[in-house]
Amino acid sequence: MKKRPDLKYLKHINQENKQQMESQNILSKHLGWGFLVNEKGIRYSSLCHADALMLAHDLNVRIDIDYETKEKFLNYAKNTLKTKYGKPYITSTGYVWATGLEFTQAYAKYIGSFSPTSNGDIKNNIGARYGVGRANGHSIVMDMSDKSVYFNTWTLPGGYGNNFNYVPAVRLKY
Amino acid sequence: MYKCIVLFPSIILLMTISCENEKPNSNKQIDKEKNEINSQTDKDKAKDLYKYIDKFVSGELDYSLEQNRINELENKYKGISIEVEGIIWTVYPYEIGLTIKENKIKNIIVGASCQIGNAESLFKVNQAVKLKGTIKEIIISSDPSGTIILNFLLDNCEKIS
Q1: What is the DSSP letter of A90?
Q2: What is the pTM of this model?
Q3: Domain boundaries, chain B
Q4: ipTM of this complex
Q5: Architecture of domain B27-159
Q6: B89: which chain A residues are within 8 Å (Cβ-Cβ)?
Q7: Structural domain boundaries of chain A?
Q8: DSSP-H helix ranges across A32-171
Q9: pLDDT tens column, A32-44
Q10: Who has the most CB within 10 Å: B28, B52, B93, B148?
Q11: Contact state of A26 with B139 under an 8 Å Cβ cutoff
C-alpha cells in the first residue's frame, strides 16, 4: 500500500527546520559528498538511507533536527565512527556500513535524544512506528503501522522513487 | 494673559504630535519606494535567470559541468524574489512542488519547491499556479536513470494567481 508523502506529523515544529523535499540532495549539496555519478556523468545524491534513518528517528522521538546538525553528524559518522569490522559508519559515496540500529544509536547519542534499544520485529509487527523501507536501492521513511510510505527523501518532479514497491527494512525498538 | 499661557504649550504639543505623526508616514513612503526599487532590481536580475532556465531545459548544455555554474547562480540570486509559474505535482502541509518547465524528449525538468503556510488548503495537485518566492537554494541533480532536474528551493512563497 502506498500513499502520498505526508508531513502532517511535523506540523507542530518550526517550519524553518522541518525536513524538506529533496532532503537527501540538500544534505549532499551542503556536505559536498554522498554522491554517485550516473551514466551521463551527472552526480546524484546517495544519502537516502542515512537521511531516512535520521528522519525516522526524529519522528519516533518527536524531535526536529536541522540540516546543519545532521550534516555535522554525517561528517562525524564518516570520519570518526567505525563498525566492529573497522568500516566507517558511512562512506563518502553515502553507503552506510553500520546497521540501522548502530547508525541510529550513534545519531541519537550525537543529538542527545532517547536511543533505540534493539531491533524490532518486522514480521511480527513489533517496534517503533516509523522505520525505513527499501526498494530498487532507494530508502524512504515508512509508517510501519500500515506499511505505507511516510516521507520520500527524494521526491522530485521526475518522480524517481515514488512508484517503487517499498518493503520494511529497518524497524527499531525504543 | 492666563489664556495665552495655556494656549501656547498646547500649540507646541500639537506641533510635536504633528511632527511625530509625519515621521512614520515619510518612513513608510521611503520603505515603499525602496521596496519598489528592490522589486524592480529583482525583476531585472530574474530576467537572466529565466534565460538560463530556457537554456537548461533545451538540452544543449554539458550538464556534468553545470554544477559550478549553478553555484555561481545561487550566489548571485540567493535572497532575491522571483516569480515562477507551473503545474503543481505534489502538495505538503507547508510546501508544494511545482514543475516549471519540462523537456520530455531529453528528460530534463526545471522545478521549484515552495515553502508556503497552509499549502494543503490552498493548492491541489495538477493545479496551474503563479507564485512569488525568495530563492533559498538552487539544486541541480539527477536520478540514477538520468533525468536531469534543476530545482529552486523558495521561501516565503505567495500565490499570485
Answers
A1: B
A2: 0.82
A3: 27-159
A4: 0.83
A5: Beta Barrel (2.40)
A6: 157
A7: 20-173
A8: 48-60, 67-79, 100-111
A9: 999 999 887 888 9
A10: B148
A11: yes
